[in-house]
Amino acid sequence: MVYCEYCGRQFHDVRQLATAPCPYHPNGSNRGYHKLYEGSLKSRYTCRYCGRTFSSIMQMVTAPCPYHPNGGNKGRHSPAL
Ligand SMILES: [Zn+2]
Ligand SMILES: [Zn+2]
């Protein structure tokens, strides 16, 4: 199984992931494809910006991050590898 770094969705293989539009793409909803999360699968995921931990990527990316590089809460948490 592979995961999208933006939305946390699960796919069977990278090809399937890389050819489907992502609703959480940073350029806008469905304005780009899913991106492969290249980190290892963990029981807790840490946000690369603020260090908060979440039990799944999907849970993490739906919440705005107070330390996002675009400005406080102007983007969502993003999983560190
Ligand atoms: Zn995605
Ligand atoms: Zn964060």
Describe this structure in words.
With 81 residues, the chain is low in regular secondary structure. The model has no long low-confidence stretch (mean pLDDT 95). The protein is flat. Strand 3 (45-46) and strand 4 form a beta hairpin. The protein starts with a strand and ends in a 21-residue tail after the last helix. The strands form 2 sheets. The chain has a two-stranded antiparallel ribbon with strand order 1-2. It has 2 helices and 4 strands, in the order ββαββα. The structure holds zinc ion (2 copies). The site of one zinc ion has 7 residues, from loops.
Summarize the structure.
The protein has two helices and four strands, in the order E-E-H-E-E-H. The protein is low in regular secondary structure. It starts with a strand and ends in a 21-residue tail after the last helix.
